[in-house]
Amino acid sequence: ICYHYYPKAPRLLLWIMIEIAIIGSDMQEVIGTAISFHLLSAGRIPLWGGVLITIVDTFFFLFLDKYGLRKLEAFFGLLIAIMAVTFGYEYVVVKPDQKEVLKGIFLPYCKNCGHKQLLQAVGLVGAIIMPHNIYLHSSLVKTREVDRANQKAVKEANMYFLIESTIALFVSFLINLFVMSVFGQAFFQHTNQEAHDVCANQSLFLNQSIFPNFPENNETVTVDIFQGGIILGCYFGPIALYIWAVGILAAGQSSTMTGTYAGQFVMEGFLQLRWSRFARVLFTRSFAILPTVFVAAFRNVGDLTGLNDLLNVLQSILLPFAVIPVLTFTSMEPLMKDFVNGIIGKFLMILITGLICAINLYFVVTSIISLNYLAYYIAISFVLLAYVAFVCYLIWTCLISHGAAFLARGPHTRFSYGLQS
Fold it and tell me: CA-CA distances (angstroms) from residue 289 to 20, 236, 292, 396?
């Protein structure tokens, strides 16, 4: 649909944005897998070695792909089940305060939060809602055998797709709830000195390369997916650490082929260019491996997990390039006919999209203000202007699809009246 409605230049820009999201997601998979192998081997497998191992898992998934999409989906289901069980185990072991968990679900709050906490919040949005997966889900729906000329059959299929998506999102919600609750209960208000003292005598750290570098002071401990696993092992035993690492491994692997499929569908849709999955994997993984192995080899694990956090933020920043086109096309009556968005659906999607764009804009602007170098300031300012301009263009086409036909010019009239046969 994007290919037929957007002119060539914005269509290519959209494709580039989604490709960046896919490569970023693949880098996160590489980072997560490398850290999990580093933890499972008690530091015997170096981080750069874990990064190189991810080359092997790519060919494993390509092997599974030969047995059909359903088999691959079943394997993804197994990985998600492993994530739910492992992170659920951590939740049971840590025993967070259930009242506080429920309070946080229905009344989200954050005491004394600043720019750093906002960065984490923006990253959470990007980590949970990856832009390319919106395109992937749309393409996977097309693979289902549905009589699209039969309105009743389409309505029935929509109902089952809704149930499927609801279950998937609920499981995702539970997994993220487990992780956030474990981090909040196990690490909140613990100091670096406390964490250092507890971990110092653990047999987990016979290999000193895995021992986290906790400053011996009374500042609140800062954790990431690596240090989080270490501290869980210190406080709750080695089993907690290894189960955490298995969960990270499953999380990383579950995103590998989704990125491959999404990349293939995105390339076919935007460019009308068909590549084999093997070529797609090589293309994406080549961009993901090189910077990641460089950071893993020449920097420390803190830099690697920091890169992972920044990639989460990148996913959130790129989210409008998936959400706005969805809102645009699902609101076009000539395209959707009886299945066009209702008033409530449009209002909610506009509200959510506007909130995401506002948060991203605030984060980028405050980041620019904090820069100390004029060259960085100027460069990022140009990037910000280009980003805002493109988002405004997408909003413009979205307004046309919502009935503002007076804004339409040239080929953009198709957003109001549909494709002319």
Answer: 14, 34, 5, 37
Cα separations in angstroms, 120 against 113, 175, 383? 10, 17, 22
Top-confidence residue, 408 or 222: 408
CA 200, distance to chain mean position in Å, is 34
Split at pLDDT 50, 70, 90, the class of 206 is very low
Structure tokens, 259: 């990125």
Q: Compute the average pLDDT of residues 373-379.
A: 73
What value does the CA radius of gyration of the chain take, rounded to a whole number of Å? 23
Q: What pTM does this model have? A: 0.83
Residue 168: pLDDT band with limits 50, 70, 90 = confident
pLDDT band at 199 (very low <50, low <70, confident <90, very high): confident
Contacts of 7 (CB under 8 A, 6+ apart): 411, 412
Cβ contact 409:326 at 8 Å: no
Cβ contacts of 142 within 8 Å, gap of 6 or more: none
Q: Is residue 54 part of a domain?
A: yes
The answer to the question of residue 245 being in a domain is yes
pLDDT at residue 208 in the model: 54
Evaluate whether residue 106 is within a structural domain.
Answer: yes
- The DSSP output letter for 421 is -
C-alpha pair distances (Å), 209 with each of 41, 44, 82: 11, 8, 28
What's the domain count of the chain?
1
Say if 35 falls within a structural domain: yes
Tokens of 24: 């970023």
CB atoms within 10 A of CB 389: 9
| Strand segments (E) across 264-322 | none
121 pLDDT exceeds 60?
A: yes
Residue type, 326: V
Interatomic CA distance for residues 81 and 292, integer angstroms: 28
Rounded mean pLDDT, 68-89? 82
